[in-house]
Specification:
Elements: H1 8-16, H2 21-33, H3 35-53, H4 59-69, H5 73-83, E1 138-143, E2 157-158, E3 165-172, E4 180-188, E5 194-199, E6 203-204, E7 206-208, E8 211-219, E9 226-233, E10 239-247
Helix pairs in contact: 1-3, 2-3
Amino acid sequence: MFSRHTSKESVREYLLGTLDERGTAWIEEKCFSDSAFFEWVWRLEEELIRNYLRGQLPAREREQFERRYGQIPALRKRLEEVRNRPANVRRFSFGLRWEFAAAGFMLAVCVVSWYWLHGHDGSSSVTRAKRPPTIVPTLAVQLTPGLIKGAEAKQVEFAPPPGGKVQLSLELPGRTASVTCRLVLAIIDADRRSEIVWTSDVLKSGAAGLSQEVDVEVDGAHLRPGDYLGTIQTPGGDVMETYSFRVDVAR
């Protein structure tokens, strides 16, 4: 039924953000269910990036590429990875099932990083044992506003590390100047009613490529399992951007 979305041309449109909503949702779902398809899309993306780096893209495609890969941190990292790696060296991991991030049609890229702090005393004449530092696992999650494109698109899902924190990075596409704001997180029940569970202190966004980004750390204890709506608001309470995500039970 959706075979037309498996063509190389359709995937190229997907990567450039010009594919229709139905095709976009189908490709994203296929990437999560078919590892061979995911690898093929991954290779086509690398081919697209290398054509851009060689100056081989038509003017319109070059403009579309720069608008997407220049403004979204996850895609910007992918661009730099390919730029810094020789063309004859492949780097691919089936263990990471990325949802391809893209402004306006992709909800987010979720990248997990654990930071372990180790204390060590190299002296050979230690007379008193030192208390090791507290280990605080941190999960990094990146969110894009606009979030869900089509009913079939997947939502960002994560489970806070037990006893740890969640580092949220929230993109503010189209903004070039720093803004002062707050993040308000609300959990949504089955009847679509919301309950505010956490509000940040006053925050200031920082530059992230050609746009702005807000970084904030949330204690995982505030995030019980469920669907969430996050809003970046002005100090006066006006909503600037909206984000959605799901918190799963830690395993």
